[in-house]
Design brief:
By secondary structure, the protein is mainly alpha-helical. The protein has helices at about 5-20, 25-45, 50-55, 60-70, 75-85, 115-120, 130, 135-140, 145-155, and strands at about 85, 90-95.
Length: about 160
């Protein structure tokens, strides 16, 4: 596991992280992401944390809604009405936090059919990690893996 005070360090480093991310990502940094992603997840177990499920809602795209509703034996409209709402960006997101599908042991009731946003989170192996600066900065306070990857990149 990452050092216990990673979140405090991330909060203190936000200005430096923002400066680092303000530079156009170069090819070398983008190519390095999968390696740093793997390195981070060798040290970090999501089941120890689940901050993403406790603090964020993924976007539920139409294929996600269809897949999850079918898995739960619900009609898509029922699923949407019971769990989701349209946010100000016209995306379906969860009505409540933490996620309705998060178990007490930080496992996910719908893991095998989870939304694509959940499967991709925290995007540390994708170029969007360096291109979507605002989300990445937020994620470094929520997710120890996001903090780890950005801190490593910045300090190399």
């Amino acid at each position: 596991m990452l050092e216990p005070n990673w979140r405090d360090k991330s909060k203190k480093e936000q200005k430096k992280f923002k400066q680092f991310l303000s530079k156009k990502p170069n090819r070398k940094d983008i190519k390095r992401l999968p390696e740093l992603h793997d390195e981070a997840f060798e040290k970090i177990d999501c089941l120890d944390c689940a901050n993403c499920c406790k603090n964020h809602s993924p976007r539920f795209k139409t294929p996600d809604i269809k897949r999850i509703a079918k898995h739960l034996g619900m009609k898509e409209g029922e699923f949407t009405q019971q769990y989701l709402y349209l946010d100000n960006e016209n995306d379906y997101v969860l009505q409540s936090s933490p996620c309705n599908f998060l178990n007490d042991d930080n496992t996910c009731q719908i893991y095998d059919v989870r939304p694509s946003d959940c499967a991709r989170y925290p995007y540390t192996d994708e170029d969007v990690f360096l291109k979507r600066k605002t989300i990445t900065l937020t994620n470094t306070i929520v997710c120890p893996a996001a903090y780890y990857v950005l801190d490593k990149m910045m300090n190399e």
